[in-house]
Amino acid sequence: MLKNILCIGAGYVGGPTMAVIAKHCPGIDVVVADVNAERVAAWQSGEPPIFEPGLKEVLATCLGRNLRFTTDLDAAIPRADMIFVSVNTPTKTFGRGAGKAADLRYWEKTARSILQHANGHTIVVEKSTLPVRTAEAVERILKSGDGDARFDVLSNPEFLAEGTAISDLEQPDRVLIGGAETPQGRAAIEALAEVYAHWVPPERILTTNVWSAELSKLAANAFLAQRVSSINAVSAICERTGANVLEVSRAIGSDRRIGARFLGAGIGFGGSCFQKDILNLVYLCERLGLDEVARYWESVVTLNHYQKRRFTERMIHAMFNTLADKRIAVFGFAFKADTGDTRDSPAIEVCRELLAEQAFVCVTDPKALPAARRDLAGAGPRLSFTEDPYQAARGADAIALLTDWREYRELDYDRIHAGMARPPFLFDGRNLLDAERLHDVGFNVYAIGRPELSRL
Ligand code: NAD
Ligand code: UGA
């Protein structure tokens, strides 16, 4: 039975995942180590550095009991029986594979630290999303030492989505564990499965070989993103034909073979992973000489860029082909609701385009303003921020709704309309609002994949 777990990386995955493990496994000491001292201090204080519904409550059950956070990685490694590695794996921006391949420097650095400080038998678990066959490379590094430390490497990709991380971790559709097909590999798989078995039903714990686990993670994200791009492609057809994407996605999603989820048309997918992981898959296919397969997956990302551009083009076109000196209130900057995360948020690209058109842009968001300020730093005096959506919309020519925060549904749009310039425009990039009612209020409404409701 495991006694000590270490997780390297206290980010969106490492923090919540370890909190849920610690909550359900009071007999296991869980330590989370990160190089970022500010992040560690925030976690340690019980006020996590990320916003995630339900996270603080889970932390409260185990912080200081069997969960702690530290910057002292070197001291934590030798005590651990099992080490999860959950560091970031961004897209490489330089050299071979730039723009597509994963930048594995953080991973390799961690593997070397583990080799240097571990003793006895340690199970190393890939939690980060990694290119297929990374486990093999990690194993080679770990086996290059001349000490008596022994390692098993498992792949245990994470499928949580931000905003629902706690419920995804508490009731996962599946937990996937990939390991070597040897007696020692099977024993390592069993040890990790026992941890999850504290709260996950056994039929939801799937075991595979390492490569299948690594590939399943990339493929799952590619499939999800592909659904979003597919419905967004349909939304473009709807806008040209008078079909309504809400009706079409309901009709498609009622087919049980297709299913209703992930058919929400919008301004394109964002977040730190979809694009990164698909490009990673594209790079893998290219390396394997599978060019047609690479182009197939790449088109999912191409369509996503097109969708973001299409949104601003529709705005420009509707507002008499010029946005110069017009005031645009941007409702929502996070890449989705219920998170303060703006990594790869479509709002970044949309706001940059609006500013390039010389509009005045006022951004509001319930959780993501600090990140928005960083993302748009240096944009100049045409850009402003406010926590208050009413203030953002005061005197504005248009509202561009970019994140599906529920609170935007509950605003007093009569009041907002009264304070706006004439004619007032509303561009709903998430199909969140009641377009017909807003049209009755007096807005010229343009919702994704739906006919415009305009008086002009
Ligand atoms: P993140 O950037 O929020 O967290 C990574 C953390 O690792 C950072 O705090 C960083 O300081 C730390 N770190 C980097 N190098 C380190 C080192 N050498 N030693 C100690 N700490 C180090 O990233 P994230 O969103 O948690 O993602 C982590 C991995 O999980 C990625 O591979 C991602 O693709 C994958 N993933 C993310 C999500 C998600 O929703 N964010 C979901 C599933 C999988
Ligand atoms: C996604 C996956 O859902 C997780 O399973 C995976 O673990 C994670 O990536 C990861 O590997 O990082 P996440 O990016 O947090 O999770 O959020 P999603 O709910 O998948 O949304 C991603 C983007 O797609 C958001 O911008 C969202 O607004 C958009 N989206 C989603 C749509 O435009 N339409 C939809 O119908 C669904």
Can you offer a commentary on this structure?
The chain contains 17 helices and 14 strands. The longest helix is centred in the middle third of the chain and has 32 residues, at 210-241. Helix 17 links the parallel strand 13 (425-428) and strand 14. The strands form 3 sheets. It has a 6-stranded parallel sheet, with helices on both faces. A 6-stranded parallel sheet has the order 11-10-9-12-13-14, with helices on both faces. It has a two-stranded parallel sheet with strand order 7-8. It is elongated. It has 2 domains: 4-200, 3-Layer(aba) Sandwich (Rossmann fold); 210-456, 3-Layer(aba) Sandwich (Rossmann fold), CATH 3.40.50.720. Helices cover 42% and strands 14% of the residues. It has helices spanning 14-24, 37-45, 55-62, 73-76, 105-117, 134-142, 165-170, 183-196, 210-241, 245-253, 274-287, 291-318, 346-356, 369-375, 389-393, 413-418, 435-441, and strands spanning 4-8, 29-33, 67-70, 82-85, 121-126, 150-155, 175-179, 205-209, 327-331, 360-364, 383-385, 398-401, 425-428, 444-447. With 456 residues, the protein is α/β, with parallel strands linked by helices. The protein binds nicotinamide-adenine-dinucleotide (NAD) and uridine-5'-diphosphate-glucuronic acid. Residues 8-14, 33-36, 39, 73, 86-89, 106, 109-110, 128-129, 158, 160, 162, 272-273 line the site of nicotinamide-adenine-dinucleotide.
